[in-house]
Amino acid sequence: MIDTILDKYNCFMAHCFVMDNPKGNIYQRISHAITNAPTNELCTSTIHKGDITFTNYFGGIGLIINQPNVVFSSPEDGGTYRLEDGSLIYNDEIGTEDPSLKDLEHAIKNRNKYNEFRIISYRAIGLFLTSDSQGWPIATQTIRNDFGTFFENTIGFNLPYYFLDKGQLIEVEFDNDLGSFVNIKSKNLKKVSTMDINDKALIMSSHLLTNMTVVTLQNQNPQFLKIEPLRIYKELILSLRDEDFIGIKENKIFLNAFFGPASNAIIKVELPVNSKIITFDYNQLLKYTHEERIAVILHEYGHAFNPSKKNAEGEFAADDFAIERGYGKALKESLQKNIKQNPKEYDKEITHQRIARIG
Description:
This protein is of the alpha+beta class.
């Protein structure tokens, strides 16, 4: 609904990332905003031709948004704050919750330097670095002037990059030789067709079985901020191939977290008949390294994709699934760790065979 109004006023919606934030470093926050787009809430503003940093928007690095579900609009700073019970605090003299089409247009047309929109269930369509004289210093400072690391941490999302100069987006690409971004000279570059990161995030989000699973992987719920997330959500999504997401959807494969030795949970989705459920023990995964956590879950996806293979054949097929997605070394290390920590369960011939196959 709002995209039509954005086109009418020749502007776009964006969320800017400030340097200091208790929710994590710049890369954690970018990852969270993109991979959790189906359920996440963001504060955004519209950016128009001629806009400059600190006058019309705040931050040197931003995420370009479209197709958002707008839950709040205001032609200026609405002073919004979301309470733990889900209610929204805001200045009701200028802002509107659950805005109408008229309210949305008012917030864009009559903005006071900058406006405010709270959105959920959006699509991320690009990343930008501000290149005007006010924004460039903050953009480079945010990433410590290390464009290579910025590129490495964001390329997996397969989103286009832009410089933002006075409200105008200029598409750029990363030049490895220069270690920086440069203007794209040719618009006819051939790109490999891949599934959109927003579609991947939506499939993954809709296949998390319980709210507890959401908390352990995404940690969005203010009631559970004391629970340390596993911090594998971005890497898990990026490790899976396009065909894997199609398979997750078609084969009805859900992830389910529990807190060992036992816990209860309420299923948050309508579970189809013959669904496959990958269950993982949050407390056990905390004992593994970051990469080992991903490897273990990928191994279980391998089982879910190969239900007809049993015993050693099934274990090898599940191992191959993790290996082919780049986590063979971590899987091997997790098995070696299991033998030492739980020899009664893991110091068996099949475990040693699996380790030998990985090499």
